[in-house]
Amino acid sequence: MGDVAGARAVCEGILSQDKACAGAHCLLGVLSGQEGNLDRAMTHLTEAARLAPDSEEAHLGLGNVYRLRDAPEAAAASYRRVLAINADSAAAHYSLGLVLRHLGQFEAAAEHLQRAFSLSPDLVEAARDCALCRIHLGAHEAAIAVLDEALNRHPEDAQLHAALGLAHQKMHRPQAALECYEKARSLGHATAESFNQLGYVLQELGRLPEALASYEQAIALQPDFPLARFYRALARLLTGDYARGWPEYETRLISEDRPQRPGTYARWQGEPLAGRTILVWSEQGLGDEMMFASCIPDVVSAARRCIVECSARLEGLFRRSFPGARIYAAAPDFSIPEAIKAEAIDCEIPIGSLPLYLRRSAQEFPQHQGYLKADPERIASWRRRLSSLGDGLKVGVSWQGGTHLTRSPLRSIPLSRWLPIFAAGDARFISLQYGEATEPIEDLASRCGTRVAHWPEAIEDYDETAALVSALDLVISVQTAVVHLTGALGRPAWVMVPYCPEWRYGFAGNSMRWYPSVRVFRQASFGEWEPVIAAVARELRTWGERAEQRDSHRFIGTGQRESS
Description:
- Helices cover 54% and strands 9% of the residues.
- The protein is α/β, with parallel strands linked by helices.
- The strands form 2 sheets. A 7-stranded mixed β-sheet has the order 8-7-6-9-10-12-11, sandwiched between helices. Strands 1-5-2-3-4 form a 5-stranded parallel β-sheet, covered by helices on one side.
């Protein structure tokens, strides 16, 4: 009846007559917990469980108090005690699932949450939380199955629609995700997180003005929302709005997904570097590291001394390319070697923050001819090896980019779909694919008779990869680190990108500000690769014909070719 004070008075009256009444202790414990008096709740519930060891309510209440006290292991033990008494307690399964999720045991949590929903189909929170655990585990289809079942029973539950949208988003189905998010919003689901997720899928669909507006709404609802600010930064950088994009790009440094690196020296904030020593330290992946390295010559020319920490795989390449800087490989724990500390460093900056001060507008991107330098002897060796493949252009290819988390399904093009490119003119193709490449190459050869040379030793050693790329006539790739390597070497590359690519590739045009030698081939609509592949094939055929014409002009009167 809602008369909490009356209920408490009755229980206290009972206990004044009979201190061993387990039911009165249990109810007083529950009431005390609801009022926030956890100490009193613990006292009464512990006594209730002692007096009635098989009381589901007492152990369930104890579990709730432990959970509120941030003692998840003890809470889990109490919920398991309930399940030992009654294996079909939906409340215990649900509560245990929440605790296990908090402990990072997502698979076990999902099982208990799904069991709770099966036992109590009106417990929609169990279905939603189960789906979120499945999404975390990457079991997106299983999450969708749970949510579909729940939505059959509760079609107007906004949070179920929002969770279904997230599952589709993680599977890179932005149109399906958008429909779910819009349905959730029509049902009143309008949180900062929901607007942020809506902005993300709108951006994947290339609807950038709407995406930016959605991020703005998320930030208006929750000003201290770094993920929304980060996504807004990426959208701005994608459109070339560097002045507003770079400052918020700094939010990447506080992401929960990356280890925090404590600052050792004062942070450089763009002030003059004359007479000062600066440490530029590595971050993000190899592609980004090479891209941001285009700023290193600016720093070297401005500072008294520039020290660069880089990935161990790039150390040799960076040493050769930036002789005016001191280069050292990053340690696994990012600790700074004593020899580097002895350099009397004045300030430091992560390499991805250099553009904040050095690339604030499109005009500040240099028209370079390549700033990374491969080993000349290795280049010559690779040219000899490439000549053994026969006449024709030597073209490097890479078809798989990123991971599922970094939009690999949208970025990648299976090798079997490259046949129009492989059939375009007289060219020899060489794999530049990092990771497992043997199986798709062998499958292509057996089914289509198309051969792609694959030399793993050229891929594992990045200095070797740089030499091979420098010896090739052309690189054709999807969005991968090899595009950054080729562009940074000043070598020609054609990159095929989805309708809304990674921010580094820009949203429009056939060029890339970071690399003058890179040409961009874009999807005209979401998911359509065939026109892109056809355009690349046509250009390759034309390029090959021009190359043949250039070769024919190199013959001199003696019948010998001029040296190229």
